Amino acid sequence: MHFSVKGNVSWVGKIDWELRKFHGEEYSTHRGSTYNSYLVRDGKTVLIDTVWSPFAVEFVENLAKEIDLAKIDFVVANHAESDHSGGLPELMRRIPDTPIYCTANAVKSLKGLYHQDWNFRTVKTGDRLNIGSKELIFIEAPMLHWPDSMFCYLTGDNILFSNDAFGQHLASELLFNDLVDQSELFQECIKYYANILTPFSALVDRKIKEVVAFGLPVDMICPSHGVIWRDNPLQIVTRYAAWAADYQENQVTIIYDTMWDGTRKMAESIAKGIHEADDDVTIKLFNAARSDKNDIITEVFKSKAVLVGSPTINRGILSAVAGILEEMRGLGFKNKKAAAFGAYGWSGESVAMITERLRAGGFHLVNEGLRVFWNPDGQALADCVSFGRDLASK
Ligand code: FEO
Questions:
Q1: CA distance 116 to 109
Q2: Please, how many CA atoms are within 13 Å of residue 110, restricted to the half-sphere of its CB?
Q3: Which pLDDT tens digit goes with each residue over 235-291?
Q4: Annotated catalytic, 115?
């Protein structure tokens, strides 16, 4: 399958309608994904990126129907991660001497992954490759999101091939951003940013400024997942700039797990208190044991404050809450307030433990949390409402 992108640029990737988990089990892909590979035909023919390894044979067979593989002059590997390089072993088996343009770090990653001594040509930011009437300009993008990541820009057609950046896990045959459901599109974009790029926000900000400083016109942004930005392509760059600036909406997210409903009742009463004090704020509750963790992280990303609750078990916290707290710590959210809560029967360590983990994760604790002894009675629930009201005022 191939689609025309613009001029002599074609999409030759793979739509993965079935994908529901990505990065092993780490990332949920409710709407599938695509692995975008692009064929650029000018005086020279260039293949930009490949697909994930389960589709390698299918990919190369389809590519061979599109073009005599021997006529591919250059391969560009913008990123070595397996979802984009997985087709290389099968492809390079057929065209072993074809040069692969990539960063020095990508040579290390590709050698580490495939143990092949392909014909690597390393490039740095600003290097140009003449392909006939047009050029490819390379722009390194280290840690967006791997050390080897790179963008490349096609002159003449003014296309930025941005690899993972500006992409979305969204399976679609509609190819372009203006053709798909906009709420689905932006939900997948923000989920991708929240779960993958949050730790690198300072680099995102710097990279956007660097690319803008190049002064290159951008008619189209072709990422390596999801749809191509052809309608107002810079709208996604503007969104990234906002997301990179310690993003928050007027939202409070309450995450908890519960054994016998005590901590759930606390969560709902705290939400009631917040709502009483501020009826403009969006409040969302998630039972961490029953919710998709990547969806929760997306809501944390959008929040100005996060409340986390667990009853005490074995002098600790329930494992679903421990898991989401570890995700939150690793992503390094900035500019977010937080507090803990939980029910307990005897030792009651959970609230202090959650408080400590939130603090270690960079959240600004507004208090030392709220504990309720055994199942909350009317007075305890009123205290939770009051706790929520007090939080809203902060
Ligand atoms: Fe889509 Fe970092 O791979």
A1: 11
A2: 31
A3: 999 999 999 999 999 999 999 999 999 999 999 999 999 999 999 999 999 999 999
A4: no
